[in-house]
Amino acid sequence: MTEAEQLGFRALADPTRRSILRLLAKDEMTIAEVAENFQMTRAAVKKHLAVLSEGDLIRVETVGRTRRNSFNPDGLRRVFDWFGYFDVFWDDRLSALKSEIEKDVQ
Amino acid sequence: MTEAEQLGFRALADPTRRSILRLLAKDEMTIAEVAENFQMTRAAVKKHLAVLSEGDLIRVETVGRTRRNSFNPDGLRRVFDWFGYFDVFWDDRLSALKSEIEKDVQ
DNA sequence: TTGACATGATACCTTTCAGTATCACAAAAA
DNA sequence: TTTTTGTGATACTGAAAGGTATCATGTCAA
Hints:
2 copies of one chain form a homodimer.
Chain A: H1 2-12, H2 15-26, H3 31-35, H4 42-54, E1 58-63, E2 66-71, H5 73-82, H6 92-105
Antiparallel strand pairs in A: 1-2
The structure holds a DNA duplex.
């Protein structure tokens, strides 16, 4: 579980990968489509996608000879949850309400 | 602004640094005190503290010959805010309420 | 079947990173 | 003043990361 957290944080450590994640959050894309948005080779983009996949931040589905990369909210959520350790330091009302709702959701 | 974000994410990419941050969130510490919690040299811990400082996640105050390292909530908050791009993917009620409160706070 | 095309895979290079070892320095204590 | 102690700084090593180039492979279309 802590390993998943590490792979997630590692994936987010690179600005290109954070950028890719925001692209995929809008719409799923093939490797080539993602690569169009960056000034680097398709191979380099593919590596970034592999790291994002290892961090469980994206899902990859092979369709024929194409690969559809899509954003995985649950994976990012796991990284996001780490920040909960520090909730008490931010706005008290917000964090209190937040825990209240999360309790309610479960 | 995006550079600060990058330094923040980079600082959080290492598990030792995330661990240090949680320690300092409980209480401020000198380098030696932080180092007691890890099986590595004080020099290595000092490097981690430097990265955390560059990411604006901790504050450092020199007092005599000691250095007090303390958690900086505002710096972590800036990293945390990046996740707002994905709010819509998580619980709708929570994120809606969250934005509402944040609006109210400002 | 042949060719085009999206992707997989590997080797290689350069830079950054995590860590150690070592020495210098400054402040507190004796 | 001398000694102790907490820290700063530098050089070095091994491993990982980001990137390119190149070729192999599988699938779709003609």
